[in-house]
Structure formats: C-alpha cells, structure tokens
Amino acid sequence: MLDREGFRPNVGIILVNQRNQVWWGKRVNEHSWQFPQGGIKYGESPEQAMYRELHEEIGLKPEHVKILGRTRDWLRYEVPDHFIKRDIRGHYRGQKQIWFLLRMVARDYDISLRATDHPEFDAWRWHDYWVPLDTVIEFKREVYMQALNELARVLFRGREVDVPSSHTVKQRQREVRYLRHVVRHANDSQGDNVVAGEEP
C-alpha cells in the first residue's frame, strides 16, 4: 500500500521504561540496532498497526504499555535503490511514519523476541534516551532524530532538555568514521589484518 508519492505508511515505536530509557533492538543477523517499526495494513489505523507491531516484534500486548504521545505529522525517509526490489523500483520511494511514545508498565520478562515465526530482533537492551544513531542504518538516522526530538518534549515536559542538533549527530558520525579509518590505517601499517569495526 503506497501513497501517491511512493511512500508506504508505517509506524515507529519508542518504548520507554520507568527510568526513561528506550528499548533498543538488534536486527536479526545484522550489526544494526533500531526501534520497532512496521507497515500499516489496509484498513488499519496507525494505533492499531502500532499495537500489532508491538506484539509481533517484541511480544507486548496493549495492557503492557501506556501511550504517552505520538508525532503530529508523518515523518518520511527515502530508501536507496539498492535496498529496493527491482520489480517496485520507480514506484516505491520509502516510508512515511507516525511515531508513538509508549511507557512500559509490564516487566522485562514480558518481552519476547519470538512472538512470531519471523523475528525481527535477536537481542535487545535498555539505552539512554539519546541512542547512538551511528548504529542505525544511515538512511533512517534523520527520521530517528526528528522523532526523538519531537517526543522528548512529551517525555520530559516541564524539564530542560538537552536536545542534540542534527549537526552534532552528523559531526559525531564523521568523527567515528575518521577514528575507524585511523585505526585501520595503523593496523595495515603494522601488517595486522584485523579491521577495527565495520560500517553500520
């Protein structure tokens, strides 16, 4: 189901615990980490899709969470051509997402990564709210920053929030890439074949 511009309707989920840490999942057989997300099926509202994805991806039910807020508008990201199946190239551009901020009112043991036969994640952890975006696949990073920024104002209402700017995030990503390059160069110079880290 695509809109006229080629974007697939989708929901994203930022799940926080009582300490305002976010649920952070590692994609199956990959080195990238992300929040739960998934497509909105025909006839579903964004909220219905959110509850379905919440159960399919991390095993939680509506009674396990409380909705704290959601993004006001759709947030969009484009998917590079080499990630798109050939038969839909030229039609499919990417995702448009409504992001939900949820408070978990259940216990950690209620989380299950094996709620379906096709798990999305093979590991998870709680992380400080401002997650390291260099572990998110590159084309999703700007949307993650937009969602975190908007929903931080809901989560930390009435408190001073130190919101990292997009410039700060990009600068940090450049620094990480530079340091990896330096380490690789040093290893090569010493005849060491070890590669220090992989690009996410």
| Relative helix content | 25-40%
What is the first-to-last residue Cα distance? 29 Å
What is the typical, i.e. mean, pLDDT?
85
**Main sheet summary:** 5 strands, mixed
- Please tell me how large the radius of gyration is: 18 Å
Structural class: alpha+beta
Q: Helices and strands, in N-to-C order?
A: EEEEHEEEEHH
- Strand tally is 8
Q: Counting H and I runs of at least 4 residues, what is the number of helices? A: 3
Shape call: globular
Q: Uncertain runs with pLDDT below 50, 5 residues or more?
A: 178-183, 185-200
**What fraction of the residues are assigned to beta strands by DSSP?**
15-25%
Topology:
Layout lengths: L6 E10 L5 E6 L5 E2 L2 E3 L6 H13 L6 E6 L4 E4 L15 E11 L16 E7 L13 H15 L10 H24 L11
Parallel strand pairs: 1-7
Antiparallel strand pairs: 1-4, 2-3, 2-8, 5-7, 6-7
Can you tell me about this structure?
The longest helix is centred in the C-terminal third of the chain and has 24 residues, at 166-189. Strands 1, 4, 5, 6 and 7 form a five-stranded mixed beta sheet that branches. Strands 3-2-8 form a three-stranded antiparallel beta sheet, with no helix packed on it. The model is unreliable at 178-183 and 185-200 (pLDDT under 50). The two termini are 29 Å apart. The protein is of the alpha+beta class and 200 residues long. The protein has helices at residues 46-58, 141-155, 166-189; strands at residues 7-16, 22-27, 33-34, 37-39, 65-70, 75-78, 94-104, 121-127. Strand 2 and strand 3 (33-34) form a beta hairpin.
